[in-house]
Amino acid sequence: MAARRQAFGNRQSYNRSSYRQAYVYGNTVPKPEVLPKRKSAAQPERPVRTSRQVRRNRKRAMNMSPAYTVFLAIAAACAVLICVAYLKLQSDMVSRSESISALQEELADLTEQNDTAYNAAEDSVNLEEIRDKAMNEMGMVYASQGNVVEYESPTSDYVKQYNDIPSDGVLAKSKDAAE
Q: What pTM does this model have?
């Protein structure tokens, strides 16, 4: 950084190869002045000669054929369609996400209401009072050893009893099961 410094009263000036800048005290600072680059006079620019074939090739490269133009138009249309489809999918995803959030909030509210109602119903029932009424007023008794009959259910987990349960404990048999 070989700079030449000149002092002019309050100013100091630096002369560099491509621009000139002055240091100013105070609140105003001028923009640096850019000097044009000097050209050496020893080497004048001369136009470069190109052959006729090179000029013809350059001209042909600058022109677009109708087929290439159609190809570019179709490629641009495909790119636009892909972008539109992407944006549509993204908006669908956002709307579904919002819908899921709304349904989750509704589920949380319904679960809370259900739990509150269940706890209120459970707290309102006094099992000791029910047992006392059943035994004293209705004459019910606990089941003894011989009162419980176990049986095999052929189809489901509960049975509606219309008749007495057979002594062997089997309610129904198909014809194929007997063989």
A: 0.39
